[in-house]
Amino acid sequence: xxxxxxxxxxxxxxxxxxxxxGGIYNQNGRVTIDHSSVALNSGAGMxxxxxxxxxxxxxxxxxxxxxxxxxxxxxxxxxxxxxxxxSNMPGGGIINANSATLVNSTVYGNHSNGEGGGxxxxxxxxxxxxxSTVAANSANTGGGALNAGIFNARNTIxxxxxxxxxxxxxxxxxxxxxxxNLIENPxxxxxxxxxxxxxxxxx
Length: 203
What we know:
By secondary structure, the chain is an all-beta fold. The protein has strands spanning 4-8, 11-13, 24-26, 30-34, 37-39, 46-48, 53-57, 60-62, 69-71, 74-78, 81-83, 86-87, 94-96, 99-103, 106-108, 111-112, 119-121, 126-130, 133-135, 138-139, 145-147, 150-154, 157-159, 162-163, 171-177, 182-183, 189-193. Helices cover 0% and strands 47% of the residues. Residues 196-203 have low confidence and may be disordered.
């Protein structure tokens, strides 16, 4: 624990790790991923466990099985893409059980055989999304995102997501809108206004 790993211009690919993180497993340490790819790993692309700090910058997390990123601590994703990941459990792209921040990033084309194809936010967990896109993800419910905690969003698009059961294709649960969001199909979403002017549209 308490170590610091920094990967720059690197590729983490084709590893098998079960529930402990196929590509990267972090507990009580700090991991920074810059201009790198974490792809085609089994057992989640990355697991950020208790006490960990995971920062993903200008990187790609793609085509992992068992979720792209499983976060139980503090996660920040900046100018990155989480795409093509899958899971038999909730959260094909990202499953968050603590604190996750998404900035200038894309969650695209992920799949869950459960809930939250792109993003699954657990009870008591917090997501802050700014200038990001959650699109073309799929799940049984909440194809784009399913929120059971707190999900704050500003300038974020939820569109072209699919729910296999037909309910809440783009967003399921409560969304705290901090302004200028778009939910293509708001069925299943409860939208509350944040502290900035809100312009949540449908299409």
